[in-house]
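Changelog note: in this version the structure field was regenerated for every chain. One regenerated record is shown below for reference.
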Amino acid sequence: MIKYNDNIHMRTFLFFIQFLILTNFISAAVTYQVTVPSGTKACYIAGEMNGWKQQVMNKLSETSYTITIDNALISHKYKYCSGPDWIYEELNASGGVISNRTYTANDQVIRWRGVYDPGNISYQYLPDNFAFTPLTGTRRIWVYLPPDYQSNPSKRYPVLYMHDGQNVFENGGFGSWKVQDALNQLHAAGNPVGIVVAINNSNDRLAEYAPFANANYAPTPRGDLYIDAIIKNIIPYINANYRTLPDRENTGIAGSSLGGLISFYAGLKKDSIFGRIGVISPAFWYNRTDLTTYVQNRKLNFINKTKIYFICGDSEGDADVVNDMQSFYQLTMNKGFTSQQVKYEVVAGGNHNEASWATQISRVYEFLFPLENNATTVQNLNVKESCFQVSSFKNQLKISQKNFITNENQLNLYNITGKLIFSDKFSNELVVKNIQNGLYICIISNENHDIFLQKVII
């Protein structure tokens, strides 16, 4: 039998436990429920209880979601997103960013920054923060995959690397190129399209996109470091994790404004890596004098195998954009390029903004990666996975035909950045010596346009 004093102690104890929970000394599961705008495809929650990482919620109805999170506290701040990143965060009625929420039993989202549709999306914002040495810090990237990427597991694709990644697929604050729409439309029309990798800019954009010093905006240029960071960190990851064509004729770089400037410079400086260059509304004024000298003195190694597209509008707010582009186009042509390799266009009414660039990117892409591209591209790719045997031993690589197919085969050996390090013809067998340890991509082609591609570790 419980005595009166014991009952008092028990009630006091239970009250104390409840007090500890409510004042967050003891954690417990918390259930969150939210009503979302019509048309929402998914809902995520991110807050102090999960390290501010978007966590998918359970769908109750077309406009209602819920989740119970263990070890959450009602004092934890949080927000909702329509997708697995902050580009999909909730906004207030006027489109502004809301403050972090405090717990209520029934929340309501008024609007989203963007609506994420997991069932109909051709690009993704990778969650990993990539090391970006020799620059400090990390970088996020976006990856677009062609509509037939999943349905054609033996197919390999060219890659276009783009700057200012926040604006390439989404509205990062200045509008969007909507590159995914442009390439999806090209694909629907029967044109081959490849992978697009968009690299986010940083707060140091003015220096990272500068090949040379600009006294007012980039006294310490970091353009060379930025290009090296792409080659050292991003390109190896893409080549290792996606079905790419790593040779320079299938590797492009493109951007607008300062992104156009650094793309042009990168294409010349690293011509063994980049064979396709998109120079869009280039800010050549930024490094006009130094870049002129560089182009005049630069010895190019692949003039006959490079394509460049110069394009800008005639209404960009500065007449120097057209004049400078004309000057650098002529400097480029003086190096020995032909009109089949280099295109020049001034767009009537074209502005210096993402809306204009969104209307131009399709024809830039078609020129850089044309339908009639050579047999090692996505067109008519006939992968023969069993024709050749590739083996490595003691810094050597041995390639031999399993069954006699042709008298003449072409071996191109690339390092993981896409740089061609060895090329030769052979008939039945070939041994490549003195290769440094690392990951390589071996591409063998023959007169029948058969393609053999294999990654090799030495």
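Spot check on this record: Residues 19-26, 374-385 have pLDDT under 50 and may be disordered. The chain has three domains: 4-112, 123-368, 382-457.
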